[in-house]
Hints:
Layout: H1 3-14, E1 18-20, E2 23-25, E3 29-32, E4 35-41, E5 44-47, H2 55-62, E6 69-72, E7 75-78, E8 81-83, E9 88-89, E10 109-111, E11 116-118, E12 121-125, H3 131-140, E13 145-150, E14 159-164, H4 169-177
Antiparallel strand pairs: 1-2, 2-3, 3-4, 4-5, 5-9, 6-7, 7-8, 10-11, 12-14, 13-14
Amino acid sequence: MRRITREIVSAFERGQTLKIDNSRTDGTSLWLFDNKIAEWRHGELWITNAGWQSATTKERLNGLRGVSIHQRRGTWYLNDQEWDGSWVSVEHFSSGPRVEDEVDFDMTSEWTGKYSKPLYAVFHTNNADELCGVEQLLSREVIAHRRHETDTKGEWRPNHFIVVLPTDYDRAKRLTDEL
């Protein structure tokens, strides 16, 4: 994800005003080239491509939580459902139950010397706010994942992890190591 997308989306999701190059937000709406592509309506995230199936529009929208857009043969898919780009509520456009609710994750931990770490954790932080970007990346790559928190005594608490299935560990680790 490009820096401009990360910063403008972060401001939008925090309800702050920001303008960077071709993108701007007032904290309620998000614009790209003066086309409104996202807005909060009664606490729900609504998006559109504003008639532009461009790589930049797709990237800005993919930066938003809960949004995963990909393209096949010129057709856009939002959260694995065909989408014509018109205004939709992301919450009501999801593709059913979340994958992490349908599978059992191995939460076996190992001791690192300072804290307990799940064996299949691909990301670790002491700040839970830093997990969102990793979750978005894994969702776009269709890698099942779950947040996990370990609580050890002392200066290393709390520890927040993103855990994946053992079969996805190597691929997910390569992706998150690039962050």
